[in-house]
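Reminder: ligand-aware prediction takes two inputs, not one.
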Amino acid sequence: MKISKYHLSTDILDEYDLPDKQILFSTRTGSSLLVDSHIYQNLLAGNFSSINEELIATLKDNLIIVDKNEDEFHTVVTENDENRESVDVLSMTIQPSANCQLGCYYCAQNHTKDYASEDIIEKYIERILFFLNSGKKYKGINITWYGGEPLTGLKSIKNTTERLLKICEERDLWYSASMVTNGLSLKGKLFQELVTQYKVRDFQITLDGLAESHDKRRYTKNNNNPTFDLIFKNIVDCTKTEAYQNKLGGITVRINIDKTNHSFVDPLLEYFVEKGINQYIGVSFAPIVNWGGNDAGKDSLTNEDFAKKEIDWLLYCFDNKIKFSSLLPKRIHYACMVERDDSEVYDAFGNIYTCWEFPYTDNYGGDEHKIGNLNNDYSTFDNNATLRNWSDVIKSGKTWCKECSHLPVCGGGCPKSWYEDTPACPEFKFNYKEKLILDYYLRESAKNEEIHISK
Ligand code: SF4
Ligand code: SF4
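Here is what comes back for the chain with iron/sulfur cluster:
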């Protein structure tokens, strides 16, 4: 036996009223265990005989300890290869509009008033049918609507969805969709319609702090008009719809953060509480990074700073019943869509890419980064287009990931970021100790509502 290279541990938890205890986390199983510190020291020293059999069995089950001859990196990447292509949901990202009303400074897209035509929609459908007829057994179709601003291509969304719903009905497949939208046009009535008739279940809307901060970043392209008040009103109205109240659809507010607006995150979270929508929405915190070489990340917080602040924001969310994504990552078998041969991104012109940040940008929009164009014969497609071979890059050791204990839950972060020579390690790498403790207390508090989380 040996202790797995794919484990993480907290420091000793004396200051959290857990004297001589540590939490261990297996990134191979996504499970965490509270253990005595001396037991962890014995594990590190390979001194297994002093540990009782029952605990050894638990540690083995959770892959905290593994066979001493196991090449764990080989096991992990082999599992990834086997599982990646066995996913039985056909997932596509469609960017049906090249247009957007906003001129956010960190966006690298070139916006034009172009929308997916009837002919292009026909090509979307043909391509999706090509995959459905490929012989692989699918249970459902999942579409992510992305832009430009997808709602500026509403007609194309409705038209495409109607055709996909018919295909799903004929083939006994389930259908689901999500949308990344700026929220400017998402009135309550439209939310209700999109959720109930067009099966868009999850909406991601960005607010970069309160109006004072948001309006300096997310203003209209034409007149630099502010947008916070309108977007916020739309979010509130959406939460009052029947579809929202019946939990058929929901909104996550994404907050893009750097040095210039991190101090506006707390006031925004407090505003959610003041306006009574804290119990209805979810939030996600995202560092601003370069996009297509536009230097948007020049004011980024350091990974360590961001990770530290994220813990405080999460604590506030927990205390105020604002939903956030799971604290601890799960085992994943691919970093993102770029690694999946049957996951593609279509733009309004029929161009096909591997990554949703490629369309409409100067750096990645060109032919050299495309899989192809839906108007052309499929034999012309480059099935090894930019980023598709990400799993080979991981295996080659060109990034840090081959040696990293986070790989099974991280997958290597954002392949595009590494492609641009920027390490893509997620916040979890920098605040996992705090997240393990917070997760422990959240699970304890589910058993005992009196527990108070303190740092
Ligand atoms: S490569 Fe990065 S930006 Fe592109 S889809 Fe993957 S995670 Fe997103
Ligand atoms: S991206 Fe960073 S955290 Fe993720 S596996 Fe690679 S080195 Fe580790």
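The longest strand covers residues 174-181. The pocket of iron/sulfur cluster (ligand 1) is lined by residues 336-338, 355-357, 387, 414-416 (CB under 6 Å). We will return to this case in the review session.
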